[in-house]
Amino acid sequence: MNIAKPESIAVFCLTPNGVRLAQRLQAQLPLSCFTSEKLLVPGFLPFNASFGATLREAFGRYSALVVIGSTGLTVRVIAPLIQDKLTDPAVVVIDERGQHAISLLSGHVGGANALTLRLAGLLGADPVITTATDVNQMAALDTLAAQLDAGMSDFRLAVKTVNQLLVSGQRVGLWWDEPLRDEPARCDTRGFVAVADLEALPELDALVCVSLRDRLPELPLLVYKLVPRRVVVGIGCRRGTSLALLTQLLERQLADQHFDPLALRAIGSVTLKKDELALQQLAQARRIPFELFSSDELRQHERRFPASEFVRATVGVGSVSQPVAWLMSAGKLVGDTLREQGITMTLGVSH
Q1: Where among 94, 110, 130 does a domain terminate?
Q2: Taking every annotated instance into account, which residue ranges of this chain make up the domain Cobalamin biosynthesis central region (predicted)?
Q3: Is residue 136 part of a domain?
């Protein structure tokens, strides 16, 4: 999912007033600001041939695009580029006098609605947001997923169904699994019906369960499982280990701890393994980061775990998977370390 971050916002200015507005924003946020050669000021970048060409190029490079200019012009330029609400960048349009900030594209998952409110607040502009859940002052399933960094099977259909139920006045329950009970405090849950016990359900039309589990109890209604990405795995392995073997053992480790595969947030290893093809391929296949730690970093925590002199002679530290998982999860390890066929794997849960 594409969540707009301040450091990946590109701003496009078409007039002198637009440049002045962008300068006001740039004084408060880290932005990449683009304008024409004749309007160029210090700290700004020139258009590459034209506004349209530059905006089209930026569409695939930045998490968020802000156009200070016409909504119609912006729509005409980006229309051929729009593909998917889960991957398109946030697009916000601001009029050159700074009176209105309009959330145009990817309001929830892309973060355009949140960015619109932020920019409007900085400029003293009126935010214009038209998504149904926001207009009705309700949360949305895709917003909740973004806040939790969570995944879900058939996410697109689930978002469409749950958000439609919410804005139609239907009762959608929201249940949090025990390890995640602190999460609601930082999430927008307006419109959802709080559910404390799956064995004592109130009258509902559907239920969203926030859980890391691979299975939930059978329930007599429509259930959607939202899975926060919290599980990390430290991995040590021999040179030339196959992707098939790594995948098989990882799936077994997740299943043994009853974790949904969608809960996997990252894999990690020692820096010496940065070029290990199977580890790179595993991260790519799961679309998760591959985090690396130096031997010095791991050495600070190896006393907590059994050490292997063979491993020490090979990588400079007596243990890899356990201290890696320890660092990735801030010490929240789960289950036993797997040791098989020259591979070690240790799971942890981050927050």
Answers
A1: 130
A2: 140-218
A3: no
Q: Name the β-bridge partners of 45.
A: 34
- pLDDT for 110 equals 81
Beta strand pairing call for 126-128 and 150-151: unpaired
What angle separates helix 112-123 from helix 16-26, to the nearest 10 degrees?
100
Question: Cα–Cα distance between 168 and 151 in angstroms, integer?
Answer: 24
pLDDT given at position 303 = 80
User: CATH number, domain at 275?
Assistant: 3.30.420.180
Residue type, 264: L
Count of structural domains within the chain? 3
The predicted structure's pLDDT at residue 351: 79
Which residue ranges in the chain fall short of pLDDT 50? 1-6
What is the rounded (10 degree) CA torsion for 271, 273, 278, 282? -20
- For residue 46, the model assigns a pLDDT of 94
One domain, residues 29 and 47: yes
Distance between CA atoms of residues 212 and 10, nearest Å: 35
pLDDT at 253: 96
- The letter for the amino acid at 40 is L
Q: For residue 37, what pLDDT is reported?
A: 93
Q: What is the largest CA-CA distance in the chain?
A: 68
| 161: in domain | yes
Q: What pLDDT score does 86 carry? A: 73
Domain of 34, CATH number, reads 3.40.50.11220
pTM given for the model: 0.73
The confidence score (pLDDT) of residue 136 equals 61
* C-alpha span between 252 and 247 (Å, rounded): 9
CA dihedral 117, 121, 127, 132 (to 10 degrees): 30
Q: Which among 147, 141, 174, 172 has a CA at the least distance from the CA of 159?
A: 141
Check whether residue 266 and residue 318 sit in a common domain: yes
Asked whether 25 and 31 are in contact (CB, 8 A), the reply is yes
215 with 240, same domain: the answer is: no
Tell me the residue range of the domain where 87 lies.
6-130
Q: Is residue 1 part of a domain?
A: no
